[in-house]
Design brief:
Elements: H1 4-8, E1 17-18, E2 25-26, E3 31-36, E4 39-41, E5 47-49, E6 54-59, H2 60-70
Antiparallel strand pairs: 1-2, 3-6, 4-5
Length: 71
């Protein structure tokens, strides 16, 4: 798989991860490793926040969109 964002810039770079949100292949320059809270829930509630976070790989556009949503 190739990095989609590099391809848009006219480069041919191998991807090292797929974005967990959109599935885009991204290289080391375009990937963001984010520690995300993990929630465990029963039906219908309550949900509990687990003690450990889980690493997630995001592309830059999805990372930026998620950061905008936190404001």
């Amino acid at each position: 798989m190739k990095c989609y964002l590099c391809k848009l810039e006219g480069k041919d770079t191998d991807a090292v991860a797929s974005c967990i949100v959109c599935g885009m292949g991204v290289c080391m320059n375009h990937v963001v490793r984010e520690e995300v809270d993990q929630w465990e829930g029963g039906y219908p509630f309550p949900a509990t926040k687990l003690k450990k976070t889980i690493p997630r790989m995001l592309c830059m556009p999805c990372y930026n969109a998620l950061q905008e949503g936190k404001k």
